[in-house]
Design a protein that fits this description.
The protein is of the alpha+beta class and about 160 residues long. The protein contains 4 helices and 10 strands, in the order βαβββαβββαββαβ. InterPro entries: Hppk (IPR000550), Hppk_sf (IPR035907).
């Protein structure tokens, strides 16, 4: 089993309910067990900023799936919950599931890059990750808690 870290988010519709259902769906997959889950955070949009705020979270899973099979499971879950990838980056979305880290692996190919290449810049990723894996060391990047301490996360707020 490998510990993988997954970022979750969305900003269209009933995001919290959709993310809850997506986590349950992932936990039900053979070879995937959700072992930790962060709080929800309200976060400002990244990139194209004229859109609603996002709701973001993170989960840790123990998995026997190889990295590309886990990525495929995340993409299938997105589609099952209404995500349509239309080519627009950083636009509004019903759901977004990102494989942020896969054990100690460093992968950089046309389908998958882990640790996620922009993870150290993104409070909306690091805040929820710190809830569940503050001491996790992302290979070639650093410890989650240290990365979070170096960025401004004041615009991200925990949701009740």
């Amino acid at each position: 089993m490998v510990r993988a870290l997954i970022g979750l988010g969305g900003n269209l519709g009933e995001v919290r309910e959709r993310l809850d259902a997506a986590v349950a769906s992932l936990d039900a997959l053979p070879g995937v067990a959700v072992v930790a889950r962060s709080r929800f955070y309200r976060t400002p949009p990244w990139g194209h900023i004229e859109q609603p705020d996002f709701v973001n979270a993170a989960i840790a899973v123990d998995t026997s799936l190889p990295p590309l099979a886990l990525l495929d499971a995340l993409l299938a879950t997105e589609r099952a919950f209404g995500r349509v990838r239309d080519g627009e980056r950083w636009g509004p979305r019903t759901i977004d599931l990102d494989l942020l880290a896969y054990g100690d692996d460093v992968i950089d190919d046309e389908r998958l890059a882990v640790p996620h290449p922009r993870i150290a810049e993104r409070a909306f990723v690091l805040l929820p990750l710190a809830d569940i894996a503050s001491d996790a060391v992302l290979p070639g990047v650093g410890r989650v808690g240290d990365l979070l301490s170096k960025i401004d996360a004041r615009a991200c707020t925990p949701l009740p």
